[in-house]
Amino acid sequence: MFPSFSLRYARLPERLRAECLPTPVERPRLVAFNRELADELGFDLAAFEADEAAGALAGNQVPKGAEPVAMAYAGHQFGNFVPQLGDGRALLLGEVVDRHGRIRDIQLKGSGRTPFSRGGDGRAPLGPVLREYLVSEAMHALGIPTTRALAAVTTGERVFRRIPEPGAVLTRVASSHLRVGTFQYFAARGDTEAVRLLADEAIARHYPHLSDRADDGERYLALLDAVAERQTELVARWMGVGFIHGVMNTDNTAISGETIDYGPCAFMDTFDPRTVYSSIDEQGRYAYVNQPVVIQWNLARFAETLVPLIDSDGERAVERATPIIREVSERFEARWREVMRAKLGLATDEDGDGELAQALLDAMRAGRADFHLAFRYLADAVEAAAEAPRLKDIFESRDELEAWLPRWRERLAREEASNADIVARLNAANPAVIPRNHRVAEAIAAAEEDDFEPFEALLAVITDPYTTPDTEVDYTRPPRDEERVLRTFCGT
Ligand SMILES: Nc1ncnc2c1ncn2[C@@H]1O[C@H](COP(=O)(O)OP(=O)(O)OP(=O)(O)O)[C@@H](O)[C@H]1O
Question: For ATP, which residues are the binding ones (predicted)?
Answer without folding.
Answer: 86, 88-89, 109, 121-122, 172, 179, 261
